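Here we describe the complex-level prediction in full. Unlike the single-chain runs in Section 2.1, the two entities below were treated as one system.
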Amino acid sequence: MQKARYDTDIVRSFVNWSIVWGLVAVLVGVIVSFQMVNPSLNFPPYFTFGRLRPIHTNAGIYGWGVGVIFATFLYMVQRLCRTPLWSPKLARFQLWFFNATIIASAVTLLLGYTTSKEYHEMEWPIDIMVVVLWVAFAVNVIMTIIKRKEERMYISLWYMMASLIGVAILYVVNAAEVPVSLFKSYSAYAGTNDANVEWWFGHNAVAMALTAPPLAMFYYFLPKTTRVPIYSHRLSIISFWSLIFMYLWTGAHHLLWTPVPDWIQTLAMAFSLMLIAPSWGSVFNGYLSMNGQWHQMRDNYLVKFLIVGITFYGLQTLQGPMQAIRTFSAFIHYTDWIPAHIHMGTMGWVSMIAFASIYYLVPRIYGRQLYSIPLANLQFWLILIGQLMWSISLWIAGVLQAGMWTAMNPDGSLTYTFMETMVEMYPYWWIRAAGGLVYLAGIIVFIYNLVMTVRRGENATVATVAAEGRA
Amino acid sequence: MWEKKPILFMLLATGAILVGTLITMVLPFAWVNTEADRIETVTPYTALQQEGRDIYIREGCNNCHTQTVRPLVAEVLRYGDYSKSGEFVYDRPFLWGSKRTGPDLARIGGKYPDEWHYKHMASPRSMVPRTNMPAYAWLADNKLDPQMIRRKMDVLGFPYTEEEINALADKTEMDAIIAYMQKLGTGIPWHEAAATTIVGELKNPYTGVDHATMEPWEKLYEANCAACHGEHEEGDIGPELDGSAYEENELFEIIYKGVPENGMPAFSSLGSDKVWKLVNFIKYYTQGEDH
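The structure predicted for the assembly as a whole is:
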């Protein structure tokens, strides 16, 4: 059988390791959320909020997010191209180099070796490791595409290729720094320029690592799961090209009201609003693909993950442009509203699609039926409730604090001191920490379910695996 | 057509990505940090300040503190004049941050005396009750290494004298981070927080209120004054308080506008109402009452 030639071992390994790093990311997230409400939980010098928070974000983006990208891309590219992986050996190298990079990142960040640039904190030796890793991955995927047997490239392949190029450009440009020692460097850019480069990177890392790849997964796994093709090929073409064109103009919406030149801020604001169109192009394409299939939301747990995931993508891409408007940014920026926004995207959209993809993959790469669909449903509700507790509590907190920061007395003086506004945050920070615990519980159920699937799941033939999930 | 040609596809995608990149990221280098936005009074960091900045980076202070004041009324009143591009030309990397769990620090320099910072860094809750800032007392145990700064100096192009470099050997990381904070935002002469001008004559709105009304105002004193003037106004970093030595209006002016030359910060950002409450509280309790 042709399928037997596909390399599934490497997909298994990346699935397993991405889950390990995902668990680490959420665990550290829960720890720092408790440090926010109780500063005595900081244990200097290594276990302080200032050093742990970058470990949380980088484990989430590079360990979990990129780990799932590696797993799913290597799975999808073989099937969409109907050809085995170009080099399984290179992929093996990529796996161990990936783990080495993540471990080196965590250790150096704990030791305080950091560039301070958000989502790019790792120092220059690790930047080099990341580049080697990405090149190994990109070459393998691109070579597989070049020697493909299926002439036409499906939507998912477009998003994958855009991601490969985009991440490479962004990461290398933002990494430009002059080393002082092995673990200390200074940015090649200064002040306002450095800020503008960093948020060009920061915002588009979201585009190229946390938007294009989950869309590639969504466009592949949704029709695979529902067994109904995607609604419109033409709509996906328009969405794709306008998305990758417009995204790159928007980085400065992170820098509204700062010394960055006004015209860059205005362009960023305008393009952020325009981005609603291509983002919702994909959302509509997903929804309309469900025409006549909505009953599957009830009887196929995978569809539930995918459709709720794309719904959070839709909400995220409405809320984001709203925040990119100057007046709204003036009010809400720097408050807890912003992390709430980010976590709706990461916990609600990206991770929801990642969980769906892994649930789809595991029975196929291990040849076992999923251990328990009720447990998968339980996980769905735990992560949904956990994320909503997280985001809603901090949206309220953000509006409250913004209101207090800007409140004025009748004589024009400020009504509240900074500390008076900060102590009001404690109750909401407690709810956020609790939401994090609920989400963590969801991940533990997920891991338990997968471990039991591998150990005890019934052997599955290709036919039964295909039917799986539709009970 | 491009759906069947991966190389062509990737070239087109690269082109699409590069348009916005070139215009909003590459092009601004032509204007930003050029002579046009230089500010003459902005100077490079001293050796000690640069070491402090690197400790600020190492400890991830930027995860909770921003360093840009926006040109918005409430921010200029709370923190000081809004930030200008020319103030950051020596900042590699920039440290503007993205979240204010703690207050903005762009204009913290000179706002409090050094001694306030030493005590606050060692034990934040002893100075600011209910803060969630972790304690950094351990920085005082770490000596600086003068050798590292030579290499940093070469990379950054800052001119340090031998004397300045050798002087670092006697300093701790705590000295460095405080020296850095005291420099922040002082590159322009008009950096202090704007105070709302009180229109008309000063008039105590709480003349003659009973002591029961004043009781809750003690919280205001504890949150804003006790750290320097002692829990019972007995003095600490700041002098012992003697409310009877001043007229109500004089006391109001001292608290509202501060006495920068003596290290007394302005408390105009509290708003006039709270300053009046403090005036009444201080005057009442220094008239012999023990509390």
